[in-house]
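B., you asked whether I could sanity-check this one before it goes into the benchmark set. Here's the sequence:
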Amino acid sequence: MNKKILVVDDNDVILKTISLRLQGAGYDVITARDGAEAVAAARKEAPDLVLLDISFPPDVGGVQWDGFRIMEWFRRMGSEKKMPIIVITGGEDVQDRARAISGGAVAFFHKPLDHDDLLKMIRSTLGY
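And here's what the prediction gave me:
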């Protein structure tokens, strides 16, 4: 049985690129474009790992989601509390890195991604 990875990013090109790379490496991929989709997908699919962007555009009519809020929701969920999270971001803010790691992220990658390094981290995190 393949490991499931949830990829959360608002950019369709990034979602597609990462999805293709992960599928090529043998992973099952679930995608979400915002916080609500991410939480729903995590509840339904119980992924083995999450790749999570932290920057999202302003919400037009509800909860303002960003990667940190999504991480908080994941940690409040039942069995998903154990899901390892790898943050992927286009930002360069040192405070974001520190906040992500203190919030439970196992790693922090900047875009554009080095897919080989990302795959190595995923394998290491998942224990193989």
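One thing to flag: The chain has a mean pLDDT of 88. Otherwise nothing jumped out at me.
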